[in-house]
Amino acid sequence: MPSNLLWADKYRPKDLSLLDYHKEQATDLKNLTQDGDFPHLLVYGPLGAGKKTRIMCLLREMFGPGVEKLKEETMSFTTPSNKKLEILALSSMYHIEINPSDVGHNDRVVIMDVIKNVAQTHQLNMSSQKDFKVIVLTDVDDLSKDAQHALRRTMEKYVANCRIILCATSISRVIPAIRSRCLCVRVPAPTEGEVIKILKNVASIENVNLTDELAKEIAVKSERNLRRALLMAEASFVNNIRQGIPKPDWEIFIQKTANVILKEQSMQSLASVRNNLYELIVNGIPSEIIFKVLLEDLLKPCDSSVGANIVEEAATYQYRSVQGNKEIFHLEAFVAKFMCHYSGLVQQMMEFF
Amino acid sequence: MDFFLKSGKLGDASSSTKSSGGSKAVKKPKLVPWVEKYRPKTIEDVVEQNEAVTVLGECIKGADLPNLLFYGPPGTGKTSTIIAAAKQLFGDLYRQRILELNASDERGIQVIREKVKTFSQLTASSVREDGKPCPSFKIVILDEADSMTYAAQAALRRTMEKETKSTRFCLICNYVSRIIPPLTSRCTKFRFKPLNECMIFERLTYICKEENVICEDVTLNKLVETSGGDMRRAITCLQSCAKLKGKGVPISIDNIIEVTGVVPDKLLIGYLEVCKTRNLQSLQNYIKEMMLEAYAGSQILEQLNEMVVNSDDYTDKQKAIIGEKLGTVAFRLLDGGSEYIQLLDLGCAIIKAHNI
Ligand SMILES: Nc1ncnc2c1ncn2[C@@H]1O[C@H](COP(=O)(O)OP(=O)(O)O)[C@@H](O)[C@H]1O
Ligand SMILES: [Mg+2]
Fold this sequence. Notes:
heterodimer, A: alpha/beta, 7-stranded mixed β-sheet, 12% strand, B: alpha/beta, 5-stranded parallel β-sheet, 54% helix, globular, binds adenosine-5'-diphosphate, binds magnesium ion
């Protein structure tokens, strides 16, 4: 095994029977592969809960180790309006994996092209155990509604030739019509105990010392995101940290921003906050995360009644930020609203708007 | 992708190149999920939906067919009904006589005008290959028509008028309000109602027998209950439970709860209890933990609604406040709102309701 892999990748279980937690589910998935007539799958759960690992194990169970011989390819598509699109795909002889939301609102074109291609170029072969191929679509909760609707009938029409495995963090955004066409597999985050156990296990194979306290600290700070926990553990080992794992830079940056807001509620302060928000967006931090972390930091000094109002504002503006296409406006509007509530100088502040 | 596509021959290289068309002898039946396997083959197999079935039945007996509009919630048999009818009408000619366009196909104005027009103008005879008579018209099925733009719908209207002699149209949608009135007024409308629970139960019992699934009546009833009149959902769920547990293992209520994604009451009661303490910090922590269990936000809201409405812990006024927020939050969730923030907002509304 090449040793330059990150722990998070190096210790990814490859077989359903080797999965460390949700063992009953792993057995269930194994049963599922026994016959070829199972429905499409929708695997969902929080980040770092092991969805992808489970999917790969499942594919391996169905097709054998060949699914690990992956090729990376750039696929190109043409939209009806003659725009050229490119997207990265990972494929083996048995399956193909794409993240259609990489191409934004043109995701529909990509999905349709891939599915129809796979379904139509399929050749029958009796020697293989399964006579269908698998299309893995990741981040389906980010798919446009258009793309999701396009999947509906397509999923039914081509089901004999290809199975689709959808992967999502939250299924609230997946339209019910798709959910009812799939076997939905819920993958909850591992418990703190399970995270600790896995960390200790990896540490012992790597022959490094991981104290109980540090393992516990990592489990908590990673918010039970196993991938993040393993990255943290490896980093703390590399940097020789025994306790007090630092937060990620962007989280510290948001915290600083919150401090600016709490310290002074004024036009100047708002202007400098705006720069910070821009900085975060430019660095690829999703606005949903910015909203969430900022809200938490800002709520800390508030009592429940002011807090409730602030949550209400955040809920409104975060929702609007998804509707519109300039996230910065809505983040900034939320900050301004917060300043109003927080300083209690509503009248004076209304001049902002 | 080429790598993936060209590798249709898996393993054995000596086996037939391009044999897909010819060698019918070795063809084993394709394994398809139960929803497809048990899709009605004839209109007699369609459960309920009597009005549509009667009209199509008349047509199969030789009457003329009006343009049709089927509307209603998912999994009630809209697509199945028209496809089954078309197969009965045209027999082997089925493929030449219908044009099925759904949301996955390009359906802009241009396509509607050209593709549909070309299709309509093909001549069609009134005898089948097996010598039986069949109607001399063709059918254009526009499935999921509510996702067509208004402009495309308008273009369709003109095409529909021009091609009345040779072509019938069948529009299918969930929401009839999204179809422009000039189109709806040209069609005979049929509402597909959510299926009766007894009917679903009966169908599932039949499938259980065919597939050797062991499932007690109470368990099956629970499954039917969670399906909300959606046959597709019910069948998919039945198959999921059966396949996950393996052959010969009886399906339990717990299996059904897991597969349908029903949230355990404990988790929801906990949420309402935390709201009672009116402590924002504990509410935040609780929701974070709850999110890690990965239950669908929409499901959480649906069950919370049920709980609050039926609870004696809240006055009518409090219920009204909570209900209003529930509506807003549910709507925002489906449209991309953050689950954490929206559930927190709902919690705050419940706290406010406790404070009045
Ligand atoms: N009325 C019905 N009678 C029998 N089976 C049905 C009926 N409605 C739905 N089904 C089952 O559900 C599946 C989906 O039905 P479909 O006609 O595609 O629904 P939709 O109304 O969403 O188009 C079918 O494959 C069939 O197994
Ligand atoms: Mg349909």
